């Protein structure tokens, strides 16, 4: 008769979420107490941008909630560099105090390298419902050309 041992298997968990959440909350409170200006800053990748294209154009779409057009600038440089810059200002409270501030505020500048050269003179931009849509026509040299093949 073989001696068999019953082996219990349990899943090892390196840490519990509860202490991690408590630590994060404590760090948030420390930042609030000691920060000279505890307003949230904009992320370095702000605004989030989607880029896509078709045969003749490249399109860029950027989320800019709360922006005012007079605080927004768009540039195309070096043929394929799109820069979106501006400032999203914090809403001023006449009465009351902030309880939570998660949206970032301040100046931003984001430069995206486009997949092809574009014709900067023909770029168009629309701003609707907090979304910026930029239409960038491809330069003639960037457009695909059909090459005819000759048989001998």
Give the helices and strands, then pairings.
Layout: H1 17-34, E1 49-53, E2 57-63, E3 72-77, E4 81-88, E5 106-113, E6 124-128, E7 131-137
Antiparallel strand pairs: 1-2, 2-7, 3-4, 4-5, 6-7
Provide a descriptive summary of the structure in words.
The chain is mainly β. The chain has a domain of 90 residues: Immunoglobulin-like (Sandwich). It is built from 1 helix and 7 strands. Strands 1-2-7-6 form a 4-stranded antiparallel beta sheet, with no helix packed on it. It has a 3-stranded antiparallel beta sheet with strand order 3-4-5, with no helix packed on it. The model has no long low-confidence stretch (mean pLDDT 81).
Number of helices: 1
Reported by name, the CATH topology of the domain at 39-93 and 103-137 is Immunoglobulin-like
What is the C-level CATH assignment of the domain at 39-93 and 103-137? Mainly Beta
What's the overall average pLDDT, rounded? 81
β-strand percent reads: 25-35%
What is the annotated CATH architecture of the domain at 39-93 and 103-137? Sandwich
Would you kindly provide a brief summary of this structure?
This protein is mainly β. The chain is built from one helix and seven strands, in the order αβββββββ. The strands form two sheets. Strands 1-2-7-6 form a four-stranded antiparallel sheet, with no helix packed on it.
């Amino acid at each position: 008769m073989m001696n068999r041992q019953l082996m219990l298997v349990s899943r090892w968990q390196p840490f519990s979420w509860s202490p991690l959440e408590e630590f994060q909350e404590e760090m948030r409170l420390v930042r609030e107490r000691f920060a000279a200006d505890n307003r949230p800053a904009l992320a370095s990748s702000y605004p989030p941008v989607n880029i896509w294209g078709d045969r003749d154009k490249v399109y860029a779409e950027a989320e800019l909630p709360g922006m005012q057009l007079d605080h927004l600038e768009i540039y195309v440089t070096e043929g394929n560099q799109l820069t979106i810059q501006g400032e999203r200002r914090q809403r001023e409270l006449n009465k009351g105090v902030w309880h939570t501030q998660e949206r970032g505020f301040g100046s931003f500048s984001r430069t995206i390298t486009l997949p092809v050269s574009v014709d900067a003179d023909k770029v168009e931009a629309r701003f609707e419902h907090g979304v910026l849509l930029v239409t960038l026509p491809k330069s003639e040299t960037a457009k695909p050309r059909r090459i005819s093949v000759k048989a001998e």
